[in-house]
Amino acid sequence: MQQSRTTTVVIGIITIAAIVTFGATLARALWYSPDTEVDIPSTGQAITPASPEAYPARLEIPSLDIDAAVQYVGINAKGNMANPSNFTDVGWYKGGTVPGSVGSAVMAGHLDNALALDGVFKRLKELKAGDSMYVTTVGGEKLRFVVQEASVYNYLQAPVERIFKRADRARLNLITCEGEWIKSDKTYDERRVVYAVLAS
Amino acid sequence: MTPRKLISAAALSLLFAAGAVSAQTTSTTTPGTPNTGLGGDFAQNAIVLATTGAVAIAGIAYLARRTRSV
Lengths: 200, 70
Known about the structure:
The structure holds two protein chains of two kinds. By secondary structure, chain A is of the alpha+beta class. Chain A has two helices and eleven strands; from the N terminus they run αβββββββββαββ. The radius of gyration of chain A is 21 Å and the shape is elongated. Chain B has a domain at 41-70. Chain B contains two helices and one strand, in the order αβα. Chain B has helices at residues 3-18, 42-69; one strand at 26-28. At the A-B interface, α1, β2, α2, β10 and β11 of A face α1, β1 and α2 of B.
């Protein structure tokens, strides 16, 4: 009797552990993409801060049926732009330019989740020159950007100065992953960057 | 101001207060590109889900039977 009760308790504990593990794994695979952020290193060069009303709130790409909320992301411990915390929002790099200002505003979205289901930027490769995308700001202004070109780079050789720092006009660059999975680095081996400019 | 704008402004104010968003006053160094894809982990996750799911179902069935027989 005692042994039977002990067995039941042990099986109960194992069952609860299995349920919790199942739920946590499913949640992280489908909805939650954690990325621990660190402070963004400053160059010390003073700039005029953007008005909070200019911050992006939503990104729409009608040709891809994308209408996504925008999260504000910094960098992670590896010094890379951090990810949005789920697979349906996009992340705007808050250490850079606000969309609509001169400079390169950068947004990133997931290609897929951990069960290989579509992320918000799954269809980004379908964007072509001339396609429009819209950023709605916190203040309610709607900005139109037009795609100029798209490029795919090895994930270690992407031209980050061009992606994040080009400041000849108001730009919006979108990033997602592509290519083959590298198991050791837990990443796809390519990055797709779509370059767009503010429509005049 | 529309309700949506009020909510957005309120949300942004909270984010500023929480320090999650700071008005940037200096330029920053250039980051690397983000890692925006996890589909390669599908096989590993599928195995974990299948295994824990099977254990959970078996455990619940056993406990249900035990409860009925008590």
